[in-house]
């Protein structure tokens, strides 16, 4: 019989698969990067900092305020902050999108999957 592979420091536990998968993806990424650098002149594109910062800030804000602000308000805040990543959207469109996604997330996660989190802010009641 074949015994399962066990590496020292990585016991077969709850995080075994994510660690192995992320390690494999890192190795593949390094191989692709090395091959691209060896193939000739590598010209990196200009980084769009505003979208990168605003979307990251929106996700961080969602995680930070979810417990106190509730799912509806946290989702709405995430949509508003992430829409600031690219200027030019009308505010009414942003508000409608925020309300629609808040209601959709509440229907899926709070009512459908019955995940234990507050729907409304803790100071509301």
Describe the protein's topology.
Layout: H1 16-38, H2 49-83, H3 91-112
What would the keywords be for this entry?
125 residues; 3 helices; mainly alpha
Structure description:
The protein has 125 residues and is mainly α. Helices cover 64% and strands 0% of the residues. It has three helices and no strands. It has helices at residues 16-38, 49-83, 91-112. The chain starts with 15 loop residues before the first helix and ends in a 13-residue tail after the last helix. The relative contact order is 0.10. The mean pLDDT is 87.
Please count the helical segments. 3
Q: Detail the poorly predicted runs.
A: none
Oligomer: single chain
Could you report the average pLDDT, rounded to the nearest whole number? 87
Please compute the radius of gyration using only Cα atoms. Answer: 21 Å
Q: Give the ordered list of helices and strands.
A: HHH
Strand content: under 5%
Globular, elongated, flat, extended or rod-shaped: what is the shape? flat
Number of strands: 0
Structural class: mainly alpha
Largest sheet data: none
- Helicity range of the residues? 55-70%
Distance between the termini: 61 Å
């Amino acid at each position: 019989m074949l015994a399962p592979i066990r590496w020292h420091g990585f016991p077969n536990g709850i995080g075994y698969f994510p660690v192995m998968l992320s390690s494999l993806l890192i190795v593949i990424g390094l191989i692709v990067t090395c091959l691209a650098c060896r193939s000739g002149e590598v010209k990196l594109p200009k980084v769009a900092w505003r979208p990168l910062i605003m979307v990251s800030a929106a996700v961080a804000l969602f995680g930070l305020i979810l417990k106190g602000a509730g799912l509806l308000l946290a989702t709405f805040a995430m949509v508003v902050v992430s829409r600031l990543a690219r200027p030019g959207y009308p505010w009414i469109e942003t508000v409608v999108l925020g309300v629609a996604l808040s209601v959709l997330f509440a229907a899926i996660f709070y009512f459908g999957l019955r995940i234990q989190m507050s729907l409304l802010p803790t100071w509301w009641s």
